Amino acid sequence: MTNLKDKRRVWSSGPLIGLIIILVFFFSQAAFAQEEEKKSEAGLVITSVPSGATIFLEGEYSLNATTPATLPLNLKGKYKIRALKEGYEGWSTSIWLDGTTPKLISINLAPKTRLKGALRSAIVPGWGQYYYGEKKKSFLFSFATLGAAAAFVVADNDFSNKNDAYVSARNDYAAATNVEDKYRLKQILDEKQRQAYDAENVRGTTLVLVGVAWGFNLLDAIVFYPSLKESLNISSSISFEPENRGIKLSLVKNF
After folding, report:
1. For 51, which DSSP code?
2. pLDDT one-digit tens code per residue, 135-194
3. 201: enclosing H helix or E strand
4. pTM strictly above 0.70
5. pLDDT tens track for 78-93
6. 95, 78 in Cβ contact below 8 A?
7. Which domains does the chain have, with CATH numbers?
8. What are phi and psi of 76, to 5 degrees?
9. Taking Cα atoms as reference points, which of 90, 92, 93, 91 lies closest to residue 131?
10. Interhelix angle for 135-175 vs 179-223, to 10°?
11. d(CA 142, CA 124)
């Protein structure tokens, strides 16, 4: 009797095991077919190192996504691809999609560096800050340096005119032959000399302002590189004080 019961159990469990195997095979094949269908529908697969970059696709259609990104197969024509990620250089390229052949694009993003930022600020004040993504500070440094440079040009032109007037007055004084003319021209000469001296001082001051604005811009690009700024908890600022007729530059270290 025992043997008969065991045989019945084996026989009754046999169809169940077979059914389970068939179901597992069926669902695995369905999943595989679905995955293959997705792959066949993918027209453009974009990956990046590091991942998490924002992708902009510009052409007949405009799309954006975050890497890794899979875009549909039906895209056709010429497209421009741009990749952006904070702390990394921008990346772009142009591709042609035929709508039938899948494409894979792998992007390696180069990290931004302090040296590149400093070189930019050395050439154009504020460019390094713009490169770091600090657009507000970039505008302030550019405006401050260009404003100081414009003030220097005006002051230099004013000094040149007043110095010419002083040289002319000096020549007139030297050419005078009588005492009355000498006395009158000496007063004019002294006044022209004072005006030229004051204009020269103003010119020198504006030149110093140009140097300070440019130098602080370069120092900011070197010292206040974003990663260093976050680790040291430091900040810089630039502001204008019209009531004091000056520019205020400051470095702040928070404890």
Report:
1. S
2. 899 999 999 999 999 999 999 999 999 999 999 999 999 988 888 888 889 999 999 999
3. helix 179-223
4. no
5. 889 999 998 888 899 9
6. yes
7. 41-111 (2.60.40.1120), 116-253 (no CATH)
8. -130, 150
9. 90
10. 160
11. 8
